[in-house]
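> example.struct
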């Protein structure tokens, strides 16, 4: 049965609210990325990924962009894999919900933080699944800033070489990185043409447009021997005009009134 867009949108709004609540505790965090990725997380976790139970998945999910873990913690808070109380301790001393995640936490297969490494691990998982005769698909989220790492392109080259049609690379192409606009620091464009040159089937999509995003994800289900790359345009802070005005801010520190206003803005 097809899940309606309205149901996925409801999940996305709930993920956004949770991201804001997570940052509100300490007054800071990667809220821009969390809100930007909420639609993608909702579409993946509540539709695209095949699962057997709430925390047993058929498909593999590799988060290379460690600091974007906020979006994933918040998505996993939906079925209660993380309680809201625990999420409220995001980034705090002694909390296991660190800003960049550790492998072994529910939903996290690799340790994040050192950028540029996850695609290599995803390629390894996809090759292992092929050897085992498994039909698992492997999804790997990377960021535009990570595209500046050479290791990404070694992994992309091997995915093309081995014809890993089960691999889906999701690029959070948000135009920003820690030091400013990606185009100013070191341009990564044209991202789609680069992945195509490495043997991928690549397309661009507005990942804050749910119907377009879900249609693009559905097109990655073909396994005809070409790995897939979805170049996802996302808007940092999406859904809260207050936080959208922080556009191109990699990390947000704000007073409680700002978090409160942002929370009230999420539809
Ligand atoms: C290997 C490595 N180099 C540098 C850093 C420092 N760093 C942390 S976040 C970041 C920005 C990366 O760009 P992107 O993921 O596109 O940032 P965002 O869009 O989330 O602002 C950098 C350089 C790191 N974590 N790992
Ligand atoms: Mg970025």
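> example.seq
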């Amino acid at each position: 049965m097809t899940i309606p867009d309205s149901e996925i949108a409801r999940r996305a709004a709930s993920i956004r609210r949770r991201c804001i609540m997570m940052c509100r505790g300490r007054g800071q965090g990667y809220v821009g990325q969390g809100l930007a990725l909420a639609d993608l997380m909702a579409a993946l976790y509540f539709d695209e990924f095949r699962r057997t139970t709430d925390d047993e998945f058929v498909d593999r999910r590799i988060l290379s962009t460690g600091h974007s873990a906020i979006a994933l913690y918040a998505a996993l808070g939906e079925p209660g894999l993380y309680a809201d109380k625990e999420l409220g301790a995001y980034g705090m001393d002694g909390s296991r919900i660190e800003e960049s995640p550790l492998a072994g936490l529910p939903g996290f297969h690799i340790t994040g933080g050192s950028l540029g490494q996850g695609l290599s691990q995803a390629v390894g998982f996809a090759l292992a699944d092929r050897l085992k005769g498994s039909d698992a698909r492997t999804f790997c989220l990377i960021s535009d800033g990570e595209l500046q790492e050479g290791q990404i392109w070694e992994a992309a080259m091997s995915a093309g070489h081995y014809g890993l049609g089960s691999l889906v690379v999701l690029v959070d192409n948000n135009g920003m990185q820690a030091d400013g606009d990606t185009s100013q620091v070191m341009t990564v464009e044209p991202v789609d043409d680069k992945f195509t040159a490495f043997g991928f089937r690549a397309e661009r999509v507005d990942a804050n447009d749910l119907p377009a995003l879900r249609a693009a994800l559905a097109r990655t289900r073909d396994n005809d021997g070409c790995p897939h790359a979805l170049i996802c345009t996302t808007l940092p802070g999406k859904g809260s005009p207050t936080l959208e005005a922080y556009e191109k801010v990699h990390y947000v520190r704000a007073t409680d009134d700002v978090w409160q206003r942002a929370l009230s803005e999420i539809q």
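> remarks
Residues 5-26 form the longest helix (22 residues).
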